[in-house]
């Protein structure tokens, strides 16, 4: 057997494994909410306690995640509020869209999504990359945004760029093979370990992989959609920085003291300095997924934000 044939068999085996991985995880995990088509894109969402009084909350998850993660951490907010959770385009069970890497395009979809649900204004609660989408909405679709509660926000330029695999996933041909053959195998072999490491210095919550449907992120097109946003984030953030001083909505920020993924000294502190009236609160001994460990503090900040809105309207 020639070397060329061996290589072809290996390549074919990896691609077939990718197909099998996608089928396996989609048989293992299922949508928990409803679907709506907005501007031609089919979005998966949950609308909890829709009859609640007050301004609805829209939760936006970070990269390599889905609404299942936010529901696991913050679903109990639905006890008191109308709570809307959504799989951002290309993530979870939502369809990808044209220009999925553009923050403004995602913001445009979410603005239209809220309009279709009959929501005039919402308080946006974003985590990590979800905060960048929330900030884009507040800049470009400000009529839909009552206030921002930002958890471990991504808001400013940072040194070092992004990990190489986000660029690799976008390459012609090579990117297709990388996403369809390499990433599913990596997810099967190392996905749980990587997920556990993301919680440093905290322990990953019991049952997190299953309850947050974490393996979905290693599906080819989901990984590609994440990579599109992450790899194109820097120049978009650079433009958005110039607009923060013009934000007129209340902004409250929570950051973990041990966040090694998104440094608050670059993002949270800089955003606080640029937005009039913004506040920044640190959660001690907590890493990047702080929303899983500081629900009481999130409730307090949300209550204060609502007080700010009441005072502003008087």
Could you explain the architecture of this structure?
The chain is of the alpha/beta class and 314 residues long. It has a single domain (3-313), classed as 3-Layer(aba) Sandwich (Rossmann fold). It is 44% helix and 14% strand. Strands 1-2-4-3-5-6-7-8 form an eight-stranded mixed beta sheet, with helices on both faces. α10 (268-274) links the parallel β7 and β8 (279-283). α1 (3-28) packs across α6 and α6 crosses α8. The longest helix is centred in the first third of the chain and has 26 residues, at 3-28. The protein is globular and about 75 Å long. The termini are far apart. The mean pLDDT is 94.
Give me the secondary-structure topology.
Layout: H1 3-28, E1 34-38, E2 41-48, E3 57-60, H2 67-74, E4 83-86, H3 103-116, E5 122-127, H4 129-140, E6 145-151, H5 164-168, H6 174-197, H7 208-211, H8 220-231, H9 233-240, E7 251-256, H10 268-274, E8 279-283, H11 295-313
Parallel strand pairs: 3-4, 3-5, 5-6, 6-7, 7-8
Antiparallel strand pairs: 1-2, 2-4
Helix pairs in contact: 1-6, 3-4, 6-8
């Amino acid at each position: 057997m020639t070397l060329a044939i061996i290589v072809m068999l290996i390549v074919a085996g990896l691609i077939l494994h990718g197909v099998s991985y996608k089928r396996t995880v989609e048989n293992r995990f299922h949508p928990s909410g409803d679907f709506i088509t907005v501007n031609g894109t089919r979005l998966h969402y949950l609308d909890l306690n829709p009859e609640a009084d007050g301004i609805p909350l829209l939760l936006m998850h970070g990269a390599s995640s889905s609404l299942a993660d936010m529901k696991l951490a913050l679903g109990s907010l639905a006890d008191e509020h109308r709570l809307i959770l959504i799989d951002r385009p290309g993530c979870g069970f939502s369809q990808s869209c044209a220009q999925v890497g553009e923050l403004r395009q995602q913001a445009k979809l979410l603005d239209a999504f809220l309009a279709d649900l009959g929501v005039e204004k919402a308080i946006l609660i974003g985590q990590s990359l979800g905060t960048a989408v929330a900030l884009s909405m507040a800049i470009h679709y400000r009529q839909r945004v009552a206030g921002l509660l930002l958890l471990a926000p991504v808001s400013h330029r940072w040194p070092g760029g992004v990990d190489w695999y986000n660029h690799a996933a976008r390459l012609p041909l090579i990117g297709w093979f990388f996403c369809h053959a390499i990433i599913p195998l990596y997810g099967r072999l190392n996905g749980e370990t990587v997920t556990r490491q993301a919680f440093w210095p905290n322990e990953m919550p019991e049952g997190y992989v299953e309850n947050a449907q974490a393996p979905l992120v290693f599906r080819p097109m989901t990984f590609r959609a994440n990579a599109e946003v992450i790899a194109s984030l820097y120049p978009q953030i650079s433009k958005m920085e110039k607009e923060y001083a013009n934000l007129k909505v209340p902004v409250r920020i929570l950051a973990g003291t041990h966040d090694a993924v998104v440094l608050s000294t670059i993002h949270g502190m800089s955003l606080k300095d640029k937005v009039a009236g913004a506040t920044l609160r640190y959660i001690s001994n907590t890493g990047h997924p702080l929303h899983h460990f500081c629900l009481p503090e999130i409730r307090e900040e949300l209550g204060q934000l609502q007080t700010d809105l009441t005072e502003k309207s008087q």
